[in-house]
Amino acid sequence: DAGVIQSPRHEVTEMGQEVTLRCKPISGxxxxxxxxxxxxxxxxxxxxxxxxxxxDDSGMPEDRFSAKMPNASFSTLKxxxxxxxxxxxxxxxxxxxxxxxxxxxxPGTRLTVL
Amino acid sequence: AQSVTQPDIHITVSEGxxxxxxxxxxxxxxxxxxxxxxxxxxxxxxxxKYFSGDTLVQxxxxxxAEFKRSQSSFNLRKPSVHWSDAAEYFCAVxxxxxxxxxxxxKGTRLHILP
Lengths: 114, 114
Fold this sequence. Notes:
The complex is a heterodimer. Chain A is mainly β. Chain A has no helices and eleven strands. By secondary structure, chain B is mainly β. Chain B has strands spanning 3-5, 10-14, 19-21, 24-26, 31-38, 44-50, 56-58, 64-68, 73-78, 87-95, 102-104, 108-113. The termini of chain B are far apart. The mean pLDDT of chain B is 91. The chains are: A mainly beta, B mainly beta. The A-B interface holds A 4, 31, 42-43, 45, 48, 50, 55-56, 91, 93, 97-108 and B 32, 34, 36, 41-46, 49, 51, 90, 94, 98-107.
């Protein structure tokens, strides 16, 4: 199993640009989570999906952030327009819903907004 | 409200010494408890988890944790640390039954002296 796959691993962009982060969950997992990790705030849950449906997006910081899951094997997190304070590591995780809560994490995308 | 407290931001121990990382949680129902480890530049990896039964749980890499309901604690231990254990450790709590969201602590960074 390839594990959770995230791309790109690193992204450097300028303020105001659109950024799209991508995630492929583990095959057979039907829950997907997006987290943001910063030194100041630690690991924050942004949004999660069950069976491709967004269940809780209360952690999405602003309307500039949006997430989609068009099918069971792909999700995107988009920031438009990006700002320097969005600089962080963004993790995607997946698991099988309805079982124990172990989540499997991807390697993360390190985003730098200049 | 659900919360996880890891009171130690940094801990330094000598190689071969014993280790205990502290974790306290606040949760209104039966908790699921986890310890994850994050090596530099990597995603989070599950070390161990507790749902029910024996309050002393064994994990990977020689780690163990003890659930103490009366103290709302789930401390992580290892009898003898190795240089490769240098990483950041996260305690997390989720709910029963199968609550999708888990709450992470801010993490404890472990440094190993040769």
